[in-house]
Amino acid sequence: MHLYEGHFWGMHFIWWIIWLVFLFWIFLTPWDVPGQKTRKESPLEILKKRLASGEIDPQEFEERKKLLERK
After folding, report:
1. Domain-embedded: residue 36
2. pTM of the model
3. Are residues 26 and 46 in the same domain?
4. Buried b (16+ CB within 10 A) or exposed e, 4-38
5. 32 CB-near residues (< 8 Å, 6+ apart)
6. Are residues 45 and 69 in the same domain?
7. Which domain holds residue 63?
8. Residue 47 CB: number of other CB atoms within 10 A?
9. What is the pLDDT of residues 5-23, one digit of tens each?
């Protein structure tokens, strides 16, 4: 039996813990990290996309745009 055999297993155990924490961090961290600046679409941009896709007509677009501008 070597003098450092117990120390080896202790370090081996610590490395397993480090690898497990690292893997959990990679795979379980949500993609939308808090504090990360993400640009969200404004209501007007969403309204413009709906007009462009044909979901709403120009008259409805103008009505909703006026409602947004009031707020």
Report:
1. no
2. 0.46
3. no
4. eeeeeeeeeeeeeeeeeeeeeeeeeeeeeeeeeee
5. 38
6. yes
7. 41-71
8. 20
9. 555 556 677 888 899 999 8
